[in-house]
Design a protein that fits this description.
Blueprint: H1 11-36, H2 51-57, E1 66-68, H3 74-80, H4 84-92, H5 125-139, E2 145-150, H6 157-168, E3 173-179, E4 182-183, E5 186-187, H7 188-191, H8 197-202, E6 207-212, H9 216-233, E7 237-242, H10 260-267, H11 271-281, H12 287-310, E8 340-344, H13 345-359, E9 363-367, H14 383-387, E10 392-394, H15 399-411, E11 415-420, H16 430-437, H17 440-443, E12 453-458, H18 473-476, E13 483-485, H19 490-501, E14 507-512, E15 519-523, E16 535-538, E17 543-547, H20 552-563, E18 569-573, E19 576-578, H21 582-592, E20 595-602, H22 607-619, E21 628-632, H23 641-647, H24 651-661
Parallel strand pairs: 1-2, 2-3, 3-7, 6-7, 9-10, 9-11, 11-12, 12-14, 13-14, 17-18, 17-20, 20-21
Antiparallel strand pairs: 4-5, 8-15, 13-19, 16-18
Length: about 675
């Protein structure tokens, strides 16, 4: 350890360490009291006993460094400099809270101090921190991201995926495991075959050490050394802090899993007791110093409570605020060149990625086999040779880890395009997509956004059997905070990506596997397209056929067949599944007075059911017949071709349903 890394234990410094710990302890004591008074609700996880870790680590960070933490984060936030008034108001759920009253105890955010929030998902912050550090590395920033988490997170896949990614890519992350001995109510020895956590981290090749987390000086020394090493090498480091929480896991916890004698024994060796005793023995403080620190903390807490009590509730009229960022201006249509080029859907997507990377240095593509292999569906073939391994980034088979890293990189200012090889693999990243990407803007009160694009192949028809043939886009369209696209045409495959990358929110793009080989001609000057509007692909008067993605061309074929019987069907391509363009749907239904929805998802709980419900709510009196649906059969997609074809909507099925609706069956 260099002289610069060593804590300087002069009077001012030791008083600062003691002040931080006492301030946190007293704040948490007050929060427990307020909880019993029902002023603070929900889950409340207190930091009593672990104060030395926040006090030792966070002051060693610089103001531009970032902090990601877990649901037990009040101590981290206080030491980081988030105003106590704003933290307390957030605990009350008031508008003046640091997260605008949207996060509560487990989701404290503060952009002014680069505090990227608590996270209620165990281990959920690890990929986010990795992504923040990835952005710093790619942008050449000399900053560190500190990530705090409990020992319970070590059992989660995100822990292992983050350790591997951070080491593999040499990312400037300081991982701090606050090992308090119990993952909720289970002792570490009951849940882990290997209880030496820092050795687990070391197995991934990063520098890791264990420290007494009840000794603030030891923690600070380890933190200074680790942060200095990260700034010098750019590589991640890991500190396991052995500590103990004096209170329950949360205020709901009856603590039946440990006895009072164990807690009292640990309290005798708590971080404040130990440090105060050492300072007295070495005549570094006076009793009056402690009294003054406690009095100052109590006064600040009283002021914070008064601030929270007097703060305002978020008006109900603002319920929908901070779900999405400001809507971007729709792109201006490009001027056609008049020259048509023949292109495949696959090549159109590739050219969209290439164009985005040329336009904006912040754009990069990452995912499984997107680089040297060229992508599972050959979409990115050749791009690594053109843009290099840093911007066409092969990842491990760790969907949650690299999707979370994409989220973090986007939150730090990059514009990642994350490719998930197939839609079923996206379920391994669902936690990161739903609990972080879709919620961080809302939970932070609009302070942080995630301008991320996630692409994935979807749909059946390739004889890939039940595990690789899902159409789950309707599931994702259920989640507020996301935008969901289904490009069907060559123009949309070429033009949606750039518009999505300019959006301030996470956009999921579902590319149907049966479209990749589709060939057609588009204008050589085809550019960005509006991603918020449905399009009428065929005009008609007798009924509206409403569909999207891979079913569009089957629906158009069905409309052509119906025309031979004198039935003129209007075909609507939804294009955007969230938000849905109700205006185009309702205008069509008002004209044709009949609606048939074609959806490759399963019928029960489908996107088709949602559209049907909206038509019934908004256009019921225009209808001359019940809304119809043609969906996939309620079976896992079979492997044999004849059964697979029978399981998903086909043109004859659409024709039959349309004829029946018109009484011509």
């Amino acid at each position: 350890m260099s002289a610069l890394d060593k804590p300087k234990l002069d009077r001012n410094h030791v008083l600062a360490l003691l002040r931080d710990m006492i301030r946190v302890r007293r704040f948490e004591d007050k929060c427990a009291e307020l909880y019993t008074q029902e002023k603070i609700r929900g889950f409340l996880h207190l930091y009593d006993g672990e104060e030395a870790i926040a006090a030792g680590v966070i002051p060693a960070l610089g103001p531009l460094d970032r902090v990601v933490t877990t649901y037990r984060e009040h101590g981290h936030a206080l030491v980081r400099g988030v105003p106590m008034t704003k933290i307390m108001a957030e605990m009350y759920g008031k508008a003046e809270g640091c997260s605008g009253g949207r996060g509560g105890s487990m989701h404290v955010f503060d952009a002014d101090t680069n505090f990227y929030g608590g996270n209620a998902i165990v281990g959920g912050g690890l990929p986010l921190a990795t992504g923040l550090a990835l952005a710093d590395r790619m942008q050449g920033a000399d900053t560190v991201t500190a990530c705090f988490f409990g020992e319970g997170a070590v059992a989660e896949g995100e822990f292992h995926e983050a350790m591997n990614l951070a080491t593999l890519w040499s990312l400037p992350v300081l991982f701090v495991c606050e090992n308090n001995g119990y993952a909720m109510g289970s002792a570490l020895a009951r849940t882990e075959s290997e209880t030496d956590i820092h050795q687990k981290a070391a197995s991934y090749g990063l520098e890791a050490r264990q420290v007494d987390g009840m000794d603030v000086v030891a923690v600070e020394a380890a933190a200074r050394q680790a942060i200095g090493k990260i700034r010098e090498t750019g590589k991640p480091t890991f500190i396991e802090c052995k500590t103990y929480r004096f209170r329950a896991h949360s205020m709901f916890d009856a603590q039946l899993y440990r006895d009072k004698a164990e807690i009292e024994e640990w309290r005798k060796h708590g971080p404040i007791v130990r440090f105060q005793g050492w300072l007295r023995e070495n005549h570094l403080i006076h009793e009056s110093d402690v009294a003054q620190i406690e009095a100052d903390a109590d006064a600040e807490i009283a002021g914070a409570v008064a601030f929270a009590e007097g703060a305002t509730w978020v008006p109900v009229e603002q319920l929908a605020q901070n779900v999405h960022g400001p809507a971007p201006v729709p792109p201006e249509p490009t001027t056609p060149s008049g020259a048509l080029v023949e292109i495949t859907y696959r090549e159109a997507v590739k050219q969209a990625i290439r164009d985005a990377m040329i336009r904006d240095d912040r754009v990069f593509l990452m995912g499984e086999d997107v680089g040297a292999y060229g992508g599972c569906y050959a979409v990115s073939k050749g791009l690594m040779a053109e843009f290099g391994e840093d911007r066409i980034r092969d990842t491990p088979l760790s969907e949650s880890g690299f999707t979370g890293a994409g989220i973090g990189a986007a939150a730090a200012g990059m514009r990642p395009v994350v490719e998930l090889m197939t839609v079923n693999f996206s379920l391994l990243a669902l936690d990161q997509i739903m609990n972080t990407a879709a919620t961080i803007r809302h939970m932070s009160g609009g302070q942080f956004g995630v301008p991320l694009v996630i692409r994935m192949a979807t749909g059946a028809g390739k004889q890939l059997a039940a595990q690789h043939s899902h159409s789950l886009e309707g599931w994702y369209a259920h989640i507020p905070g996301l935008k969901v696209l289904a490009p069907a045409t060559l123009e949309d495959a070429r033009g949606m990506l750039w518009t999505a990358l300019e959006d301030p929110d996470p956009v999921l793009v579902f590319e149907n596997v049966m479209l990749y080989n589709m060939t057609g001609k588009i204008d050589s000057n085809a550019g960005a397209v509006d991603i918020s509007r449905a399009v009428v692909r065929r005009e008609g008067r007798d009924l509206s056929l409403i569909t999207y993605g891979g079913s569009l061309f089957k629906t158009l074929a069905a409309a052509k067949l119906l025309a031979t019987d004198g039935i003129e069907a209007e075909v609507i391509d939804l294009r955007s599944l969230r938000p849905l363009d109700d205006a185009v749907i309702m205008a069509s239904v008002a004209k044709t007075r009949r609606a048939l929805i074609v959806d490759e998802g399963w019928r029960s709980g489908s996107l088709a059911a949602e559209i049907s419900a909206r038509i019934m709510e908004q256009a019921f009196w225009s209808l001359d017949a019940p809304v119809g649906r043609v969906c996939s059969a309620e079976v896992p997609i079979p492997y044999p071709k004849h059964l697979e074809d029978a399981a998903i909507p086909q043109a004859p099925d659409i024709v039959a349903a349309a004829r029946a609706m018109l009484g011509r069956a």
